Amino acid sequence: MKLQPDKFDVPSISGYGPGWVGVGAEKITASVVIGSKGQRLDWPCASFADLTAAHFAQLAGLDAELVIFGSGERLRFPQPAWLQPLIARRIGLETMDTQAACRTYNILAGEGRSVIAALLLEQPG
């Protein structure tokens, strides 16, 4: 029996490691927002300490049903006050480490869900 890999009609994450994610053949080393509707934006934060309410307000404007926040190499939660723009627009947020966020994004995007992955990519040091 010949097995064929799934073909995604949406942007998918092809790989990940400490401080990087792959989108197709491209290796990205800075924090990024990837959406199942083709969105791809720089997310200007080099570390968890750089995050502000403005970062999450930007995500609320992307009109997804769910945001998956990849918080870096370990699980860290954003301040509840930062989530108000998402709550006001009835957009869900799930927080997990960045590698788990990549896997979860691929599954949900492959199912046709309207999902955003906001991936914090901290450089190993």
Automatic annotation (TrEMBL):
SUPFAM superfamilies, alphabetized: MTH938-like (SSF64076)
Listed Gene3D superfamilies: MTH938-like (3.40.1230.10)
Name of this chain's protein: Mth938-like domain-containing protein
Organism the protein comes from: Variovorax terrae
